[in-house]
Amino acid sequence: MVLELTQEQEQLRDSVRAFLAKNMEDEKAQWLGLTELGLTEIPFPERFGGAGFTLKDTAVVMHELGRTIANVPYFSSVCLAGFTLSECCTDAGRAAYLPAIASGECKAALVTGFPFTDTAITATKTDDGRLNLIGTQDFAVDGATADLFVVVAHGVNGLELAVIGADARGLICTPLESLDPSRPLTRITFDNALGQAVGGADLHVTLPRAQALALVALASEQVGAAEACLDMSVEYAKVREQFGRPIGSFQSIKHRLADMLVSLELAKAAVLDAANADERSTDELTIAASIARVMASDAFTYAAEESIQIHGGLGFTWEHPLHRYFRRAMSDALLFGNCEVHREVIARSVV
User: Fold this and answer.
1) Considering the domain boundaries, does residue 174 fall inside one?
2) What's the pLDDT tens digit per position in 160-199?
3) Are residues 173 and 275 in the same domain?
4) Does one domain contain both 346 and 216?
5) Residues 93, 181: one domain?
6) Which residues of the chain have pLDDT under 70?
């Protein structure tokens, strides 16, 4: 298994990086550009409006979004809601909803707990085949700005998958206070809200795969953000002088930067390994995703903390972007299971 990008993926990386650097301050331009470049189409089958590319290609985009902590709904719409529909939906449901998500015309959000099979929403079928949804689920990513919700619910005969518009009667979105303002979280309440049933067979089997795909995407974003922290720290260590010489010449700073690099490279390898999802069964992908998640969370948290220390007083100021990376590191470490949860998954696989 090759733990490196292809030439085409390197070109994709460079194109996304150049675009984001050019539009760093304009969130609307970022989202519009991502859709116009076809990046929202990447992971979905061509027959449903996608580009038919791989998880590894999606991970390249997420890596670059992580480098800039871009405040766009790519993760929530494409990687959470999109992967869930793509993996768990009937063909009719995919045909009805995936093209709009792939084009970026519709921004979607996933409503479920962690693991994805653990949901606080219940569903009962109506006479016309729709699902009547009841319950409250916290921490829906980008829920306040979504046009469409993909909902995992407990039905009478097992798990159900529903799609419901944000303007549906009986649906209430309540923004939650979040450590990271660039990744807003929402409480979603359903009070006899009616959604379309789109779940395929064996949701207990397909939902864990969708979850693993989303975790790999999140881990790739974390690696990109950690890489940005290291780059900023290296540049600062070259120009910041103390006692008449750059602080990068001091052994203590060298050790910190070296440790950040080692942690980052290990996380990169784990993410690239997990991103080869097409070659893996669901069980293998689940383990690889948990490994990538742990390595990326540790690398990002360490990089964010050490970067602030290396920057000294400047790193604590609101004007410097490092506080945004620290916030994202802390919030991502708790999103969809902390490291201890994923270490348990890894441990069970080897015992």
Assistant:
1) yes
2) 999 999 999 999 999 999 899 999 999 999 999 999 999 9
3) no
4) yes
5) no
6) 1
